[in-house]
Design a protein that fits this description.
Blueprint (H helix, E strand, L loop, with lengths): L6 H26 L2 H15 L23 H19 L1
């Protein structure tokens, strides 16, 4: 028994470890119980519903409206300067 731990602390650690082991055992038993029944039921649902996922929204055929702004030559030069600055900082 470690000298720096009291009896209550040791009992607390043992109780937590025991509770964790019991929780894992119960969880495994619950997950294993009726596994074949659930597997058959989920396979039937998958066949009936098909490959789509109902929780996800349908995708649109077209994308959203794309906004486009023309830049003046001075703005293009300023943007090019900033892009060069950022790329130079990344290389350094």
């Amino acid at each position: 028994m470690p000298e720096h731990m009291s009896i209550l602390q040791l009992l607390g650690v043992v109780a937590l470890a025991l509770a964790a082991v019991i929780w894992v055992v119960v969880l495994v038993r619950v997950l294993r119980r009726d596994r074949e029944v659930h597997r058959g039921r989920f396979a039937e649902l998958a066949r009936r519903r098909g490959p789509r996922l109902r929780g996800l929204p349908h995708q649109r055929r077209t994308g959203p409206h794309v906004e486009h702004v023309e830049l003046t030559p001075a703005e293009q030069d300023a943007f090019a300067f900033l892009a060069r600055q950022f790329s130079d900082d990344r290389l350094a």
